[in-house]
Amino acid sequence: MSSMGMALAPRPTIDTVLVHAEGGPTLTLDFRDLDMLNSSGIGTFGQFLVEVRKAGQTQVKILGAAKPWQARTLALLRKIWGRVELIIA
Description:
The structure is a single chain. The protein is of the alpha/beta class. The protein has one domain (14-88). 44% of the residues lie in helices and 17% in strands. Strands 1-2-3 form a 3-stranded parallel beta sheet, with helices on one face. α2 (39-55) links the parallel β1 (26-30) and β2. α1 runs parallel beside α2. It is globular.
């Protein structure tokens, strides 16, 4: 419970998301509404892709917006795993 007496929803962890990723053929990550991603966030998603790649059963699709920083940053994530489908629209 929070200090205000309200229960907080559990936050997903990489391990929790990987359990779901192993069960399906495609995992879609939608970044289109994302305005900013700092280096910690980029590193976290990079590590996530490494773990999904190790599991080897899931295809990853990344959706991005036509924002210059997204095109550059999301392309870097694709270098971690060449099977990632990157769609910038």
